Amino acid sequence: MQFKNGRYTVSGVDLISLTEEFGAPLYVYDANKMKDQYDRIHRAFSGVERLRINYACKALTNLNVLRLFRQLGSGLDTVSMQEVDLGLMAGFDPHDILFTPNCVGLDEVNEAVTKGVRINIDNISILEQFGDQHRGVPVCIRLNPHIMAGGNSKISVGHIDSKFGISIHQVPHVLKVVNALDLKVEGLHMHTGSDILDAQVFLQAVEILLRAATDFPDLDYLDFGSGFKVPYKEGGIATDIEDLGQQLSERFNAFCKDYGRELELMFEPGKFLVSEAGTFLVRTNVVKTTPATVFAGVDSGLNHFIRPMFYDAYHHITNISNPKGKPRIYTVVGYICETDTFGINRQLSEVREGDILAMANAGAYCYMMASNYNSRYRPAEVMVLDGKVHLIRRRETMEDLLNTQVEIPELVESVQA
């Protein structure tokens, strides 16, 4: 979102005009920002001969977003068969899709095998069953390096108590399974968690994975996950991707030389690619003054934008309708019959009923976590691509809410009687 000539825009498109055309609440995505972030990672790791960026699509799975990243040359990181199917619908080659589920049954893994996607397994039980049923099918193994990273306990997935991955201390057991079943291990994978604050912590986990890799002679790639932090506040801390790229590239290249061949370096960024590209627009329903607080109540809530309530996540809020208004302090809240606070004691330009508020960093895990709580409709999504506005998901209707419900005839008759 940019401020120019007295108005807030995305790639030159006025945001207020989008709410007039498509209504509010509304998700708006800037395709140019997604491209810039993808190019930035490629530049940071340009010293690596084989580099593969797999977009972690759980962040935002709209088909148009998937097609954009496929067009850029990205692969896809998926965590469910539904995401695999969406990736195939978006035109990804199965070999460019990595399936990394957690706590799923073998039936789901088997389905992924039939679709030809790459398989990433994160527990010994499924690894044994997979090896018994799919002799000769290449597999990637997800290891847990027991490194704590992430800005919130809910997104720190590499620590010793995490359900994700096979403990690095269980590698000897893994090797016994691999040798007994003659498994072809083509890759090793790790993911420490989102919001990496310190590159050195990440590099510690890299060393752990590289040491484990020496026990697997037939590797084709190493997947170091992601978790690169983006700024949520002006001047906020972010992962220095350029510095990390230089340090990790040098270490990875040295490892490949010792290993005896060039491996592919993989990452699976999600938030890093799409978070800053998204803006969530809401309309102010009411300004309510109490003895202690001035509330700006908007036409949305945790049903559309749960990250502030779920993760205590900070999202910058701007009154784009009144940019020159006198600064005042507001607590911005939603319309759900539960406490759903977007921001406490935020300084905003004076908010009037009807004003449009914009919430930043809305591209990742925002629409994807939306629900129909309180039987509210989920909002529309718009993408600005090369200066043109595209509706990429319409707003839901009552028909959508009823679409999967099945009526009991006797109860219908009792109503009609």
UniProtKB/TrEMBL annotation:
InterPro entries: Ala_racemase/Decarboxylase_C, DAP_deCOOHase_LysA, De-COase2_C, De-COase2_N, Orn/DAP/Arg_de-COase, PLP-binding_barrel. The active site is at 337 (proton donor). Substrate binds at residues 307, 311, 338, 365. Pathway: Amino-acid biosynthesis; L-lysine biosynthesis via DAP pathway; L-lysine from DL-2,6-diaminopimelate: step 1/1. Residues 34-275 form the Orn/DAP/Arg decarboxylase 2 N-terminal domain. Pyridoxal 5'-phosphate binds at residues 227, 365. Its EC number is 4.1.1.20. One of its GO terms (molecular function) is pyridoxal phosphate binding. Pfam families: Orn_Arg_deC_N, Orn_DAP_Arg_deC. The modification N6-(pyridoxal phosphate)lysine is found at residue 58. Residues 27-363 form the Orn/DAP/Arg decarboxylase 2 C-terminal domain. Keywords: Amino-acid biosynthesis, Decarboxylase, Lyase, Lysine biosynthesis, Pyridoxal phosphate. It catalyses: meso-2,6-diaminopimelate + H(+) = L-lysine + CO2. Coiled coil: none annotated. GO terms for biological process: lysine biosynthetic process via diaminopimelate. Gene3D superfamilies: Alanine racemase (3.20.20.10), Lyase, Ornithine Decarboxylase, Chain A, domain 1 (2.40.37.10). Its cofactor is pyridoxal 5'-phosphate. Homodimer. HAMAP family: LysA (MF_02120). Specifically catalyzes the decarboxylation of meso-diaminopimelate (meso-DAP) to L-lysine. This is Diaminopimelate decarboxylase. It comes from Neolewinella marina.
